[in-house]
Design a protein that fits this description.
The protein has helices at 12-23, 40-55, 100-116, 142-147, 153-157, 167-173, 200-204, 242-259, 296-315, 336-349, 363-367, 394-412, and strands at residues 59-62, 68-72, 82-86, 119-120, 124-128, 189-195, 208-214, 216-225, 264-274, 284-293, 320-329, 353-358, 373-378, 414-415. It is of the alpha/beta class. The longest helix has 20 residues, at 296-315.
């Protein structure tokens, strides 16, 4: 395959303007976004993306999980397409770039090719995966998981949010339940550009991250049962305080992650306390542990230690502990040919770069199970993400999109 000419660049101002226009949909309260999956704001963002794609000459397909596929034809109608994309949904207090950069950089690649009248042998498909964040409907990367055959579609439809609303019903309500069978599409390769969501690239002064591996993940929903009693009239020695169980397991999670360094992490990020009254001792606490590592043996060892020790820590103080894995994926190693293609593109374009392991989960992690896949990362200020203060520079966005463009074009095979 012939690499694109080194002077080929995307239009950075157009990409940035597109990012800012999308950020106007589902604004947060502190400068970011609240465009959670399958909300009215998500539907509005999808409609804007579809309009942009159609204006760029692409045709839109939507599968039964609501994932959007915008296709720019290639010269060979029988050639498998090159897919590029990420997600448009956000956290409740999300930033303007997490996921969105990867989708709109794919759109910018197509716009650049149109500007320069460049054709590729393989079609290029820009993708917006449904429910990547998993904040409203757990687990994360839900639609890509169904696409890869890891998660069951009916099970996915039955996921419920905090109000008890079903994912399948909400998908139909906002009008984005498509007719394509999930997973019926075949890919030659999949590329995903994403902000790092960590501090390494900025600290090292690098423009681009070459993602070689992703971290595996286990989300473990835990329940501690005690006894709800009056906080003022119940003697200390007679209390069965479920909050103490949460405290003990919180320290245990931290201890387990520290024992499995390097590149292993763990924390409790979501907690529900019942009945959540200031003068009632907690009778039940439900919380979710997030364990991650890029080494499968390490990930499994952390979960095993939690299951071995947490029940006893709670039983010692009169509490019952139970746990269920509600989100998971094993650590992916991305396709070495595509990884090298990204690395060569960064070198050819003169961008500083380094190999990196993704600390977060991405749709690419599931697609890697079934088709050759890799990722490109750009820095973000202070490594901040899943926060309305999330920020990147225009130059970082351009560097990531330029490298993505070259790797995609080399894979899609420029004609002429």
């Amino acid at each position: 395959m012939t690499a694109p000419a080194a002077n080929l660049r995307i239009n950075p101002d157009r990409l940035w303007d597109t990012l800012m226009e999308m950020a106007q949909i589902g604004p947060g309260v502190a400068g970011g976004n609240n465009r959670q999956t399958l909300t009215d704001a998500d539907a509005e963002g999808r409609a804007l993306f579809q309009r942009w794609c159609e204006e760029a000459g692409m045709s839109m397909g939507v599968d039964e999980m609501g994932t959007m596929f915008a296709t720019r034809p290639g010269t060979d109608p029988d050639a498998l397409p090159v897919y590029v994309g990420s997600h448009l949904d956000t956290q409740p207090t999300g930033g303007k770039y997490d996921g969105v950069l990867g989708v709109l950089a794919g759109l910018e690649i197509v716009r650049t090719l149109n500007d320069l009248a460049v054709q590729t042998r393989r079609p290029i498909v820009v993708t917006n995966w449904t429910n990547e964040e998993g904040t409203r409907f757990a687990p994360a990367m839900l639609a890509s998981g169904v696409f890869a055959g890891v998660l069951d579609q009916d099970w996915a439809y039955d996921r419920r949010d905090a109000k008890g609303l079903r994912l399948g019903d909400e998908l139909a309500r906002i009008g984005w339940k498509g007719t394509e069978k999930v997973g019926a599409r075949q890919m030659h390769a999949f590329f995903e550009l994403h902000i790092e969501q960590g501090p390494i690239l900025e600290a090292e002064g690098k423009d681009v991250g070459i993602v070689t591996h992703g971290q595996g993940l286990r989300w473990i929903e835990c329940t501690v049962i005690g006894k709800g009693q009056h906080t003022g009239s119940t003697p200390m020695y007679m209390r069965r305080n479920a909050g103490r169980g949460l405290a003990r397991v919180t320290e245990l999670v931290h201890e387990i992650a520290l024992k499995h360094q390097p590149n292993a992490v763990g924390a409790i990020g979501h907690v529900d306390v019942y009945p959540n009254s200031r003068n009632i001792i907690p009778e039940k606490v439900v919380f979710t542990i997030d364990f991650r590592s890029h080494v499968l043996e390490t990930l499994n060892a952390m979960v095993a230690e939690l299951n071995a020790r947490a029940p006893g820590l709670c039983a010692d103080i009169g509490l019952k502990f139970s746990a269920e894995v509600v989100g998971f994926f094993d650590p992916p190693a991305f396709d070495p040919v595509l990884v090298d293609r990204v690395r060569q593109a960064a070198q050819r374009l003169g961008y500083s770069h380094m190999d990196i392991i993704s600390g977060a989960g991405h749709d690419a992690c599931w697609i890697n199970r079934v088709y050759p896949t890799t990722m490109v990362m750009c820095p973000c200020v202070d490594g901040l993400s899943h926060n309305e203060a999330e920020e990147i520079s225009r130059e970082w966005a351009q560097a990531g999109a330029d490298v993505l463009c070259h790797a995609v074009l080399e894979t899609a095979e420029v004609v002429g």
